[in-house]
Known about the structure:
Largest sheet: 5 strands, antiparallel
Helix content: 10-25%
Number of strands: 16
CATH class: Alpha Beta
Number of domains: 1
Oligomer: single chain
Shape: globular
CATH architecture: Alpha-Beta Complex
Amino acid sequence: MFTLGLFGQKSPHPEFLMHYYFKASEPPKESVLPPALLLHKKSLIGFLPISNTLGKENIQFQSQKQLGFDTIFSIEEPLICSPFLAYKTEITNFEYAQFISDSDFVMTHLGYNARQLYPDTNAWPLIAANELAGIQDNPYRHFYFQSTYYQNYPVVGITYLQAKAYCDWLGLKINTELSNDLQSQGIRYRLEIDLPTATEWMALFETCIVKPQKQYPKKLLSKQIFNAFGKENQGRELLNFIYSQPNNTYRTNFSGTYTNRGFQISNKQSYSANIPEPSPVFPPKPYGQIAHLLGNVSEWTSTPAWLHLYNNKSIILNTQGQLVTNDYQLASVFDLSHYLVDETVLKNHNAIKGGSYFQELHCLDPMAVELKQINHSAAYLGFRPVLRFYRVQK
Length: 394
């Protein structure tokens, strides 16, 4: 039985060091973008359309080489997903509190009470003892979600199940508000709000970060520095990416000054943060803007480990980039491969993307992935919904 999550981002003991392969691709959702008039409705003001150039066909792109060090290796592969809308920011304390306060509606339609949905405030770690004091309580356990001062900060301490419940609630609300507008030009639409798949999350990175950097002159861009590791031990940052700050200061919000390989990271632009950044207000820009996709808080996806995670004792990656059966697998006393054929366990662990203020540098790699049990919560873990429209067949 797993109680502490499947495989984290830390390097395992050498006795059972092995690589695990994560395959992000899955069938497209067959969603579409509706007419522009529908996208401009007040209910959808926080959502950003993500599509190909024409806005109709599927989004196709190639995943990138993984630069961070990890025991989970994301496979480089062509990815495809249907058009969708993504929330511009991570869900804030204020937005999540509105969800909890709608207790009668939530109980009637979703079957949850407020206590089941309340964030885990104990996810904030206790303050470690030092030479002056012993272990101390963390004040954010009592103020971060509860105080209005932090209402514009991303909600944390949220499990996958709670995040999914929020998406279901918001979907019901918006469906009701737009019920008269979902019929357009003789075509009827239905919408769903969900957590993004791992592919959709990566399409968001490709559309809002990679392409604008190539398309627009630097003078039109917010400061977005996407640096891979430089020469070993020179300490170039993988990502200095917390951007769209109104005062033009761009703090790198992640934990630690060393990578898992022991490379020192420059502190020149780092900021010693022990909580996330608040959600920004976007200045006008000629391209779609997304806040804190990398860094700040990690984000749940809807992609399970099941059918996406493989290990190199039973499955290997061949020279053609294909996952094939390893016929030369050797028996091992300390073999973890049996966890990878336990369907129940793998279906109850979901992918987390984006890295956070609390984690090490390599988690900010857009290809990096964590896999956590769906009832896992942490002070660095939040979520960002996506919205999909579907044409209703008559």
